[in-house]
Amino acid sequence: MSAQRAQDLVEQALAASTADGQVTFVVEGSEANLRWAANSLTTNGAMRSRQVVVVSFVDGGAGMAAGTVTRSGTPEIADLVAASEQAARDAGPAEDAMPLVGETPADPGDWDADPAETSIGVFADFAPALGQAFGEAADRGELLFGFAEHQMATTYLGSSTGLRLRHDQPTGRVELNGKTPDFGRSVWAGTSTRDFGDVSVAGLAAEVERKMGWSKRRIDLPAGRYETLLPPSAVSDLMIYLYWTMEARDADEGRNVFARPGGGNRIGDRLAALPLTLRSDPRYPGLEAAPFQVVGASSGAASVFDNGMATPAVNWIENGVLANLVRPRAWALKTTAPATAAVDNLVLEDPAATATQEEMLAATERGLLLTTLWYIREVDPQTLLLTGLTRDGVFLVENGEVTGAVNNFRFNESPVDLLGRAVQAGRTERTLPREWNDWFTRTAMPTLRVPDFNMSSVSPAS
User: Fold this and answer.
1) Checking phi first, is residue 95 left (phi over 0); if not, alpha (psi -120 to 50) or beta?
2) What GO terms in the biological process aspect are recorded for it (predicted)?
3) Is the pTM of this model over 0.90?
């Protein structure tokens, strides 16, 4: 890694610009990880990275165009800037063109500070506790598999309009699988974290042990609609997909589930029967995220012209009613609606809900308790119908107690329809999505009770 500071690279790129505008950002990254299999650590490692992104804006007479070039390491800045400007000249006018952001957000960060870093030392308490869990699992005749990762990314963003912004983003996750030696039974527990100081290995191991005990009895059930308790991890995977589709332009033009029949979008429509609020807040405790936009390529959800724009807290669904959609500034101007930026976290809550998952389970006469979902794919964008599989534990609940594990299923459900049919939400807790945690980890969700979750077919997966 070059000794050149990220801030200096940003300043050099801005100074080298001959374009009509420029945004440059540098992301300094570090990562530490542990991986284990069959009650034994297999690998550990630490790494560092640097990414330099230059976005140049050129007015060729017909309108403003944008060109982005990205390099790893410490590139020759003059060449990178020249390549970005050429990319802009080759691109043609951008339909999302807007004046670059010049207003500094409320929390710009400390531009002059060195980047935050992580190291293998983040696991100083975690690793010994994991070793103890290995021994206890071996004594039960069970195997533990999984991994722990911690990443730290510091972003320095500068613009030709004078912005100088910095943000430190820690991201941590743990996945713990319990299996029998013949791999006939498998269960899962996981959590997200900012610094591993709040991770209880004993708690995760106890969850795995309990589910392994539940799975000793096998019960085969046919496909059908079942009362189902969706735990926070499963809810987060469904809500993340819903969030990713909340683009105002797609709704306004009739291309997604938030389009109103006959034209326009469904803002103001009731989506949830319960008073649920789906929201994002860059200052949510434990799920803190960047308070400004960092965009390398334009899409329906973000624009390179909006780099540096503040990302305040926003309610997407408020008390069950659709309140906002993601809307870059250019589309906001065209539709005379407010610009609304996505935030890198997501929270679903019923403010009045206090029930724990244990209390919801105890109140279940007969139903299913899921662990996680995986291989989620979109079937129909107009209804947001998704399909996927259950994974690592589907349990039958009878008279308030788990009586055994059942076969896996393929499901067909729309998260929008689920919100409309859910009859109970538990208290919200921080959770780790299973399917999407390579891309999105900062979520807090409740357990949801759905009276008729659609298990469309039996899955042979085990």
Assistant:
1) alpha
2) proteolysis
3) yes
